[in-house]
Predict the structure.
Amino acid sequence: MLSTTKLAELADLADMKGWQIALVGDPLQFSAVGRGGMFGLLVDTFGAIELDRVHRFDNDWEREASLRLRRGDVTVAEVYEQHRRLHSGTLNQMERASVAAWWERRRAGNKGLLMSPTNEATERLNQRCQQTRINAGEIDPGGRHFTVGVSEVHAGDEIATRQNDGGSRPIGVSWSATGPFEPLTTSPSESPLFARFPQASDASCNWISSTQISFVNP
């Protein structure tokens, strides 16, 4: 999902450095945020080497169904319905059911990911997940916390960022453009909250709070 502007910048840099560019992607997936479509145009104009085997699914039926869905075949919904992959209800019912399924997987030691179409839906799901963990005693709502947007992030919350201000990061703190954190408290009680990258250094939440937080308890 590379925008036309970014692709042009990359092509100019490659010309300067004498590099070759190999574009890899799927022209039938979501396009870049911003003006795009160059990848699809290049594929249509010059052709491309295409992988024809799907490896990501355990079920054989789902491999073929995913290719039909990719091509925009709406009749494939019947296949997903036959395998009980489609669920319906009101917005509130579906959000509650999604969080319940997420919590069941989490309690079983498995990983689960909730996906939503809008930032508003993400905020609601975040709050539901967080409240579920509070009710279970995993998070202390009266403990140390900081606020980002509409979210209160507590010690023990699991968060991810979409944008970090690398220029303002403390010296010696490891960081990446996006990634999960795990906030924690330090002793004594006057110490600030810290957010921890997996396999990296801790970062003060005073710095984290200046970033754009995407998900809490995804």
The first strand starts at residue 145 and ends at 148. Residues 166-191, 199-218 have pLDDT under 50 and may be disordered.
